[in-house]
Amino acid sequence: MRSVVLWGAALCTMLLACAKAEIRADNPEPDMDINLNKSVLLNKVNEIRASGCKCGQTTMPPVAPLKWNDLLASAALNHSKDMLRNNFFDHTSADGRTLGTRITQAGYVWSAVGENIALGQRNETEVFNSWLNSEGHCKNMMSAKFKEMGAGRAGNYWTQDFGSPR
């Protein structure tokens, strides 16, 4: 009887461990420095870039994948924090800085930049779908002129910055 109880306890422990691992796989933990899971978001963007899509009425052909850039992610996170802290939603910072200025101040030397912002989405899938369903945001994600991206989230403020290094 004792071996049956021990076997049952061991089986229960194994099942719980598998269930926890499965939950983590379905709901990946965010990267703490930028408050989102960069792999999930980058993979979603690169999947659509690989297949091409329609952005509004514009057919966008497949383009090369983007690489993650931590300087762009830092600029994006700082902009999300600024919007949250100062309760606004705009591409221009509360102190009047533009995207190009913010990217340069983050240390990114660029030849082209772009930005998507969003408010209210709860996870990477929701924000990606919002951007995909907005013609201008979709075109940013599909633009062949961009080679890198970074993103950051503060609360439910999301910023996705794109760039091409000089």
How would you characterize the overall build of this protein?
The chain is an alpha+beta fold and 166 residues long. It is 48% helix and 20% strand. It has six helices and six strands. The chain has helices at residues 2-26, 38-51, 70-86, 99-105, 124-132, 135-142, and strands at residues 53-55, 58-60, 67-68, 110-119, 148-154, 157-165. It has a four-stranded mixed beta sheet with strand order 3-5-6-4, with helices on both faces. A hairpin with a 2-residue loop joins strand 1 (53-55) and strand 2. The protein starts with a helix and ends with a strand. Residues 1-28 have low confidence and may be disordered.
What's the quick description here?
The chain is built from six helices and six strands.
Provide the descriptors you would attach to this structure in a database record.
about 170 residues, alpha+beta, two-stranded antiparallel ribbon, 6 helices, 6 strands, disordered N terminus
Strand content: 15-25%
Count of helical stretches: 6
List the strand order in the largest sheet: 3-5-6-4
Question: Given the C-alpha coordinates, what overall shape results?
Answer: globular
The share of residues in helices is: 40-55%
How many angstroms does the end-to-end distance come to?
72 Å
Largest beta-sheet details: 4 strands, mixed
- Poorly predicted parts: 1-28
Mean pLDDT: 85
Radius of gyration: 20 Å
DSSP strand count:
6
Order of helices and strands: HHEEEHHEHHEE
The structural class is alpha+beta
